[in-house]
Structures are given as structure tokens and as C-alpha cells.
Amino acid sequence: MNKEIKILLASPRGFCAGVDRAIEIVKKTLNKYGSPVYVRHEIVHNRQVVESLKKLGAIFIEELSEMKDPSRPVIFSAHGVPKSVPEEAINKKVFYIDATCPLVTKVHREAEALFKVGYEVILIGHKGHPEVLGTMGQLPENSIKLIETVKDAQNFDAKKVKKPMAYVTQTTLSVDDTREIIQVLNKKFPNIKSPTKEDICYATTNRQDAVKKIAPLCDMFFVIGSENSSNSKRLVEVAKKSGCEKSQLINFDKKLPISDIISCSKIGLTSGASAPESLVQDFIFEIKKHCKVFVEEFTITKESVVFKLPKTLN
């Protein structure tokens, strides 16, 4: 085992305050009300987290109609839900606890407030993502326009717009890609209203900034996260754009590309906002079986954000 590899480890990485809060909400609800407790959609986009909560007594569903026992509590995931979901719960007399990340709720309230005072609202985000469905579902159907790419922004028909324009964004987007889309919108609509405080969340921005620092120094870059995790996929894109073409998402369902890894002298490593730190340590442990490993942590900032739990769980 003469081969030596340096792992450049990004910090911050892994769980953000919204994910920590959502997982804690499920655990506290189970402690307070017993099992089972239903969770609408994956509480966060990580299979290991979901499986660990299933073992504690959580039952994951996609719609409230799947609840076999409506007398049990249901929790809404960190990604947020359309307004129709809590309305359905109230109509069915189902007790619910909302684990929506407060930064996502902020976007919901922004979109609502803008619509109420007469703005045409654009949402920059990824079609079909639960957060996007939740944000669009705060307003009446077809009253919010979704833009995914720079091309979408360029093709947006300004002639059809009869109201003042405003935009909000999904919280887990690529900071740089979103900036490009906003530049196009600003050119097309010079008076377009932007959020008073940027919608892309602090954790997304910090994790992307850390990757930008490390990726140019690496032969390969790995992001530990799930295929359906928006923020994890964006980290891979950021690593590639920052100069490490051999960047990939690693889900622990797959075998590590060990032969490729041990041909490198430096690899970069981070994890998405819904990936537990144990997976990062498992990754490092696996590589140590094949070569000598030196880990160097790159810290760009310290995170101290904590979100309060719902009052019903205090």
C-alpha cells in the first residue's frame, strides 16, 4: 500500500439547519405521539435518513389518501407543500405538523405577497421538484410562471405581460446559473422586482463556495448525495464548472470507482445538505482499504444557524 492520496474535504458540507430540524421533528413526533407517524414525501432526499426513520416507526407516503389510520399524525417534508395539502388535512380532520424549512416558507410568503399586490410572479427552479410544486401551489393554478434555464428566460414573451414583474427562486439552485437567468430577466424587464433577501439559502451558497475553492485542485471530485437531491446535483455541476471535469455524485447504492480513485493524487469530497456525515466517513474508510490517505479539510465559513421546532413539539 505505497500509493498515497490526498482528500480535500469541503466544509461546510452535509446537513443544513433545515434538514436537522426536519429530522428532529420526525423523531420528536414519534417520541411524543408514539408510532406510527406518517410523513408525506421523503422528509429529506436521502435514503439512509429515510430508512433510519422507518425503523423508528415513520411511514412514508406521497399523498394523504394513503394514510391507513387518519387518527395518526402526519408530517410534511422539509421541501414544503402546496396549500391544498394542509387544507385537505383540515378537511379530513388529520393532525399535521409542518417540517417545511423556514427558508422555503419565506419564499412561499414572498410569492403570495407579490401576487396579492398585483405582480406577475416568475419562479426560477426545476420542474417537478417538490419544493417547486410547493411554491407554485401557494398561488391559484397557472398564476406563477416557471423558468428553468437561461433559454427559458430569453424565450419568455414580454409582450404577453400586462402586470409589473417579480421573481422568486428555489432555495437549492446553482448560484452562478441562477445569476445568469436573473441577468437575462433584468435586461428584458428592467423594473423586475427581486427578493429583498436572496432566496437561494445560506447552506446551498456555502457548500457551493467550498466546492469552487477545492475543485480546481483535484483530479476527481465526489459529492455524496442522492439522485433526487437538487442541492447535491448542483454541487456536481459547480465542481465541473470550477475545473474538475471528473466530478460525480456518489450514492452508496453504487460501488466506488476504486481503480479511478487510486490513479489520482488529489480528490475532492463534499456531501449534499441531506447527506449524513457518516456517509462521508464511510467513503474515506473505504478508500483507506486501498491506499494511504491524507485528509485536509478546507473550511470557508462556520455555520451556526439553528431553526426552532414547531410549538406543538416543545
Descriptors:
4-stranded parallel beta sheet; flat; Cobalt-precorrin-4 Transmethylase, domain 1; 314 residues; alpha/beta; 12 strands; Rossmann fold; 11 helices; single chain; 5-stranded parallel beta sheet
The CATH topology annotation of the largest domain reads as Cobalt-precorrin-4 Transmethylase, domain 1
The tally of strands reads 12
**CA-CA gap between termini:** 52 Å
- Whole-number radius of gyration? 21 Å
Encode the helix/strand succession as letters: EHEHEEHEHEHEHEHHEHEHEHE
How would you write the strand order of the largest sheet?
Answer: 10-9-11-1-12
**Biggest sheet character:** 5 strands, parallel
Helix tally equals 11
User: Helix- and strand-based class?
Assistant: alpha/beta
Helix content: 25-40%
CATH first level of the largest domain: which class?
Alpha Beta
Taken as a percent bin, the fraction of beta residues is 15-25%
CATH superfamily of the largest domain: 4-hydroxy-3-methylbut-2-enyl diphosphate reductase, catalytic domain
* Quaternary organisation of the protein chains: single chain
Number of domains: 3
Name given to the CATH architecture of the largest domain: 3-Layer(aba) Sandwich
